[in-house]
Amino acid sequence: MHLDQRTGGAKTAQSERSERHSIQSVDRAVTLLEAIAEAGGECSLTELSHRTHLNISTCHHLLSTLVQRGYVAKVPVRRSYALGARIHYLCNASLQVDLPSRAAPFIEQINEKTGETVHLAVLQGDAMMKIAKRESRHPVRVDTGTLGKSDAPHATASGKAMLAWLPEDDMRRMLSKGLPRFTQKTITEWPALIEALRHVRRNGYAMDDEEYQPGVICVGAPIRDHNGAVVGAISASTPAMRANDGHLSLMREQVVSAVRALSSELGAHGVQPGTRVAAE
Known about the structure:
Layout: H1 2-38, E1 42-44, H2 45-52, H3 56-69, E2 72-75, E3 80-83, H4 85-114, E4 117-124, E5 127-134, E6 148-149, H5 157-163, H6 168-174, H7 190-203, E7 206-209, E8 216-224, E9 230-239, H8 245-265
Antiparallel strand pairs: 1-3, 2-3, 4-5, 4-9, 5-6, 7-8, 8-9
Helix pairs in contact: 1-3, 4-8
């Protein structure tokens, strides 16, 4: 009985030591991530050791784990380490929790100025999600469906506004089921879609000219975060019967102005129509 108690005590002490070690490892890993960020997003192993006061061997082991999980990326040419894509994923996920409330005043303003239905969409992994909607003020309005995952990013203004700034590999992952046809105007071939997205990047906004629903025309523009990455889009939809040149011009002005102001609130700066990006 006494032996069992001592064994149990030994196991408890071992467990406590293991827990302390685990917590220390997490703390050190976070310290490394913060050090890379403070260094401008990229840092050599030697400099990280100096900044964090950890020996090089400890840094190397922790960085190896962070690389495997995608939170850090190796930069072989410069023999350094940079923040990985997984960090951006977490940032975007965090932003999306807050985005509907941040976007609400802008959505309301577009709705008030144009009278049309306004949507907020975001990227979640390889999917586009509609997460907020303000219905049209007009008696005759478009039925834009329910909130949730979209099956037509290639055919909608919001979808094209976000796709346009993604690398082509990411586009193809989002559209892994192909480019299904929804109307006679839907783009169903990759070369045509790539060309359309070049126009989106050039203009700073996207159009859906009855490509998803017959009789419905939409204007959408991208929302950017503090890194300049596209994290969502706002779009306005109108029945074709109201889509004269003056009304479409008003919709474009309101949507583009709103996303610029919202992106500025999120820390984005210096992104204007006509900016050439890597996806070109």
